What we know:
Elements: E1 6-10, E2 18-19, E3 21-22, E4 26-29, E5 32-36, E6 41-46, E7 49-50, E8 52-57, E9 66-69, E10 82-83, E11 90-91, E12 93-97, E13 104-109, E14 116-122, E15 125-131, E16 139-140, E17 145-154, H1 160-171, E18 184-187, H2 189-192, H3 199-213, E19 221-224, H4 250-260, E20 263-268, E21 272-273, E22 280-285, E23 290-292, H5 297-313, E24 317-320, H6 323-328, H7 332-335, H8 353-368, E25 372-375, H9 380-383, E26 389-391, H10 401-415, E27 424-426, E28 430-432, H11 438-451, E29 455-459, H12 466-480, E30 490-492, E31 503-506, E32 509-512
Parallel strand pairs: 18-19, 18-29, 19-20, 20-24, 24-25, 25-26, 26-27, 28-29
Antiparallel strand pairs: 1-2, 1-8, 3-4, 4-5, 5-6, 6-17, 7-16, 8-15, 9-10, 9-12, 11-14, 12-13, 13-17, 14-15, 21-23, 22-23, 30-31, 31-32
Helix pairs in contact: 3-4, 3-12, 5-8, 10-11, 11-12
Amino acid sequence: xxxxxxxxxxxxxxxxxxxxxxxxxxxxxxxxxxxxxxxxxxxxxxxxxxxxxxxxxxxxxxxxxxxxxxxxxxxxxxxxxxxxxxxxxxxxxxxxxxxxxxxxxxxxxxxxxxxxxxxxxxxxxxxxxxxxxxxxxxxxxxxxxxxxxxxxxxxxxxxxxxxxxxxxxxxxxxxxxxxxxxxxxxxxxxxxxxxxxxxxxxxxxxxxxxxxxxxxxxxxxxxxxxxxxxxxxxxxxxxxxxxxxxxxxxxxxxxxxxxxxxxxxxxxxxxxxxxxxxxxxxxxxxxxxxxxxxxxxxxxxxxxxxxxxxxxxxxxxxxxxxxxxxxxxxxxxxxxxxxxxxxxxxxxxxxxxxxxxxxxxxxxxxxxxxxxxxxxxxxxxxxxxxxxxxxxxxxxxxxxxxxxxxxxxxxxxxxxxxxxxxxxxxxxxxxxxxxxxxxxxxxxxxxxxxxxxxxxxxxxxxxxxxxxxxxxxxxxxxxxxxxxxxxxxxxxxxxxxxxxxxxxxxxxxxxxxxxxxxxxxxxxxx
Length: 526
């Protein structure tokens, strides 16, 4: 990547942006140096506090270009190719597609940066925004050098789809992913929603997924999702026991799932506690507990102990959830360029928020050892290689098909190139419930099963029929066998013009899906 044309800085979040001065690869500002290396690293050294740095490339972008970006954490049905919008925030990377010439181009940053990195693109050029803050305030680098980002330029690889694959591969070239095989299983969230289920219901789910797998040599998972611990749905720790009378012995639950023939999994929310303590993140209380600040060593000790306990109980998969919300007080769409509220900092103000989150993920990965880790509400560019499976889209639904169409199909279509490069992609569960149309859910099942991404199903026992059993069994066994990966995988063919692509290449065939009901997509739903 060539060096930027101009560089700007902001020491305090309330300061205006100001130009840095220097040569083509070295710039200075009061108390700060910014370097661009031969390997396209952005190195920032500051004697004191810093908030943001912006790197600008004054290079024209075709006026009719379509532009695509990513999302901070999960996507929310909002990934799409769109005409130039100068203020549109594009987290981590962007692609542009010139409809006249057919060329695709763009830029991005390698995974595991030291800053929250986003882009804006306009007709006269593009800008990389490096958010170096600590929470809602500046970071005190105290004279150290920070590798804020490694920047990549993307060249046309033949088609927009192939160019995105090439870009993802380049940004993750330093990662070596563990081979965990196909990830397929049961999860009761979309029919139980964390309420009124017990060990008996969990074991029924395990028996269902084993029955539907029908002796496949790859064992499916059966996940105990939110609602098992005494705090109830959505609450925090301690995570040392289940709800009395419902989950009296989690080690027994895990062993019983194994006896049925499935691999047991467990959900938890590592950064929320129901107990008072000195390690809370300032100002973050959501009514069910207090968010914990991971820059306290004691908080990391708690998380390590939880993961060791889950493993001792016999669980083979752990899903850690809500950490982005508990850190920022916002979900992805509300984060925007500000990320969080102004005026607060972590206990340790000397690391950027990106560094703090990356260190948290590394600690979780190390403590989990050989457990399969699912990250949900985790930051994809920071979690890459540190979770085995990443929930890449917001929740699907066992109550409203529109959420499944909007969130699930969109996430799979626009983030599938991250599969097996950043992590195993999870576009979320396929529901099978009385409240949602199976004719549509079964198509989503077919697409996920073909994709070689993670497939979890939420099967309400009340929705099981000969038809659903047949479709579920076929999809589960296809996914356990790797889907259509051996035949070249799948590709959305109308993704340039459709946020929920309906025409897909699947191996050597073309498959057309119908995602909408007779009245179309209901704008009041989902």
